[in-house]
């Protein structure tokens, strides 16, 4: 069996960082990363980007050496992706925050509102309902992170956790402050408004969960396969006929429901900002689907049927 | 129909980033020249009648167009950086000086208006000449040197003005919203102004040193060139 030689150069300085000889032809990039890690312990595999071209795309861990367009002496370029943190860790942290922070405001923990209100409860029943909905939402997210989602990437850059937590925790505190405030004004149209909003919220929560399950079932455990999602027997998934990323559509719906339920402007702001971000993600995902699959259904829009 | 010699094509968006190095197309150049000449003239007007409030508001607000220039791609600067700078100027002009009558006669206003005026006359003439590929070294030098004094001068004037406005804002509750209300929202403009002042601490040094680095790049390079010649 002919063995390969692998040299790894720094993508920016072109310095020779590592030379591996007697590499098996069927070695994967992932295995090469492990070997590189041995000679440079500070660069664990998750933070290595290995490419054929200094400015090119990263090779995948599953790529096999002999199937790449390289000679028996393969030259790869390395870029440091920076400190990495696992997706699961980031999700758990960014979702646990809002759950706990909101409850602190709900229970009117000291130093938030005037001392005479410490540990009192709101007299408006919609405030209790809002707390249940908000808490349910984030508990659902935490459980989905642990048991439902199958992540393509193991890690993301470390700085993301600070950025993401600031966003989630900051908005949660801002919303919770007003909803649980002693001077909170309940919805103008009273019980009718809250009931309608609750129905929308619950409908979209179930919808969002259904989509997550459908997406999970597309992918065998431990794999990173990508397939076109289609409607299943669950009516909540029939929206796949019109939309590429219905999980985002339902998420928007949930927060619109919560906005109407609480009639709180900061919640509306949070909904808008989230919608903008999810639209960006949905468009990106939609574009990848179109690029990867020739037979992608043409009727679908990224996030809003026919519109966006 | 379209002259191939123009730097832009019909599918402009994809090409813009590649062609940016060659600058905007002929039409965009003509427009930018007019824009920058008008701006130079405007700021000269302000200089002549130094504290003509209306002129300041008009031409400073007109600078919002610069964000559009970046967004559309006819100017290579970053939208975010430009947006930031223009919005902070517009904020000071409208949300502080215009809104709080009592500070309009403060010396601090004169301080930042002078700083902005001198800076903008130089900056817009710099752009005008650059677009016409006929930039006198003096203008380039002035643009990348006078900021050393003008920037801190302007910042001092701005901060003093905001500080002077604080008591009036607190007393009148200007632009503030209190609870209870049906939107379940509140905003304290007084606190917001204080936070704005605090934000100068991390932001100003970054912008200042960015200009310093630009200076070394632009003027240092020019010195090397003249030595070679």
Automatic annotation (TrEMBL), chain A:
Pathway: Lipid metabolism; fatty acid biosynthesis; Lipid metabolism; sphingolipid metabolism; Sphingolipid metabolism
Recorded topology in the membrane: Multi-pass membrane protein
Top enzyme class: oxidoreductase
Subcellular location: Endoplasmic reticulum membrane
Superkingdom assignment: Eukaryota
Keywords from the UniProt entry: Acetylation, Endoplasmic reticulum, Fatty acid biosynthesis, Fatty acid metabolism, Lipid biosynthesis, Lipid metabolism, Membrane, NADP, Oxidoreductase, Phosphoprotein, Transmembrane, Transmembrane helix
Domain TECR-like N-terminal, chain residue ranges per copy: 5-80
Sequence ranges assigned to domain 3-oxo-5-alpha-steroid 4-dehydrogenase C-terminal in this UniProt record: 155-308
Function: Involved in both the production of very long-chain fatty acids for sphingolipid synthesis and the degradation of the sphingosine moiety in sphingolipids through the sphingosine 1-phosphate metabolic pathway. Catalyzes the last of the four reactions of the long-chain fatty acids elongation cycle. This endoplasmic reticulum-bound enzymatic process, allows the addition of 2 carbons to the chain of long- and very long-chain fatty acids/VLCFAs per cycle.
Similarity annotation: Belongs to the steroid 5-alpha reductase family.
Record-given protein name: Very-long-chain enoyl-CoA reductase
Native species: Aldrovandia affinis
Automatic annotation (TrEMBL), chain B:
Keywords: Endoplasmic reticulum, Fatty acid biosynthesis, Fatty acid metabolism, Lipid biosynthesis, Lipid metabolism, Lyase, Membrane, Transmembrane, Transmembrane helix
Its membrane topology: Multi-pass membrane protein
Statement: the UniProt record of this protein carries the keyword Ribosomal protein: no
Protein family (similarity comment): Belongs to the very long-chain fatty acids dehydratase HACD family.
Compartment list: Endoplasmic reticulum membrane; Membrane
Region (Disordered): 1-20
Reactions performed catalytically: a very-long-chain (3R)-3-hydroxyacyl-CoA = a very-long-chain (2E)-enoyl-CoA + H2O; (3R)-hydroxyhexadecanoyl-CoA = (2E)-hexadecenoyl-CoA + H2O
Molecular function via GO: very-long-chain (3R)-3-hydroxyacyl-CoA dehydratase activity
Any single Pfam family the record assigns to this protein: PTPLA
Protein name, per record: Very-long-chain (3R)-3-hydroxyacyl-CoA dehydratase
Top class in the EC scheme: lyase
Residues that span the membrane, as ranges: 28-51, 63-88, 144-169, 189-209
Alphabetical list of InterPro entries matching this protein: Tyr_Pase-like_PTPLA (IPR007482)
Pathway(s) the chain acts in: Lipid metabolism; fatty acid biosynthesis
GO annotations of cellular component type: endoplasmic reticulum membrane
Keyword Transferase (UniProt): no
